Amino acid sequence: MFNSTHTFVGLAVARTGLDKWVPRAAVTAVIAANLPDVDIVFDLAGVPSFIEHHRGFSHAIVGIPLLSLALAGCMYVFTRNFWRTFVVALLVMATHPALDYSNAYGLRPFLPFNGSWHYGDTLFIIDPVIDFILLLGIVFGGFFKRARAAMAYGSMLIVLVYIGIRINARNTAQEDLNGYTSKITDYQTSAVLPRFVDLRMWDGIVRTEDSFVKVKIDTETGIVREVARMPTIRNTQVINKAAATRTAKAVLGFARFPITRVQGTQSGYRVTFLDFRFYDEVSHRSLAADVELDHSMNVTKETLAFNEPID
């Protein structure tokens, strides 16, 4: 989720009474709510490094308690109560991977023992509805100090109801998509993906033996409409050579619905690895790695971008 959401969750949790239980609870909570994203430092080493490490160990079941201990140790200088500070840090920090799991980007909760990705497919990565509800509770709690804890609890309860509504909408979209895929003879797997501030319309990805299909799902009418299709291709020597590059490995290790495209160029070949989750059928752009090879299949260039044009 966007860091504004994590921050508002941290503040709301602190105002439930934790700020009276231990000094600097609000500061501890805000830092704890965002600390798992410390893995953004890997972006300094380039986009491939960021993709490989983001939502990794710092978001895992093992990593959260360790980060909470480290934060409690640092905050002890100000709170003078290590264990209560640790409890606040752990409680708030645990909300971070829970929120991140809720969207389609995914999470690897069992690192370092298992690197598999898990997806909640319920909330878009930026949800201003949640931010507005939590911010409203924080602001009103500032004006009505006697009701501060009640405002915090109330805003979080409303958020949970909202998430429940979105879960129900996702399940409806999944049922509509299941009806669509039941007519596909070579169907393999599928997923529904949330859209920005939209409960009615959902994206769907369907994988068959020879292609990936993107659909729009209208949960009000039950209509599922195809909007994009890309064929799958078998591995070749050119693809295998390109797949061994750093950028390609980063995309393939992250991709939920990986697609490979090969084009001939004047100097050799251009191999594109993309994740169909992030393909925009309007702009024809996606998270993708481009690898260029000469006719002798030597890699001459490789790039990775979140908004790469797809020919």
Polypeptide structure, described:
By secondary structure, the protein is of the alpha+beta class. Among the domains are: 3-120, no CATH class; 237-309, no CATH class. It is built from 10 helices and 8 strands. It is globular.
Labels describing this entry:
alpha+beta; 8 strands; 10 helices; four-stranded antiparallel beta sheet; 311 residues
Radius of gyration: 22 Å
The stretches of 5 or more residues where confidence is low (pLDDT under 50) are none
Q: Indicate the multimeric state.
A: single chain
Straight-line N-to-C gap: 30 Å
Structural class, please?
Answer: alpha+beta
Task: Give helix % range.
Answer: 40-55%
Shape: globular
Across the major sheet, the strand order is: 1-2-3-4
Q: What's the tally of helices? A: 10
Please outline what is shown here.
With 311 residues, the chain is of the alpha+beta class. Among the domains are: 3-120, no CATH class; 237-309, no CATH class. The chain has helices at 3-21, 25-34, 47-53, 63-79, 82-93, 95-101, 128-143, 148-181, 237-243, 246-254; strands spanning 187-195, 198-208, 211-218, 223-231, 258-264, 268-275, 285-294, 299-309.
Topology:
Layout: H1 3-21, H2 25-34, H3 47-53, H4 63-79, H5 82-93, H6 95-101, H7 128-143, H8 148-181, E1 187-195, E2 198-208, E3 211-218, E4 223-231, H9 237-243, H10 246-254, E5 258-264, E6 268-275, E7 285-294, E8 299-309
Helix pairs in contact: 1-2, 1-5, 1-7, 1-8, 2-4, 2-5, 3-10, 4-5, 7-8
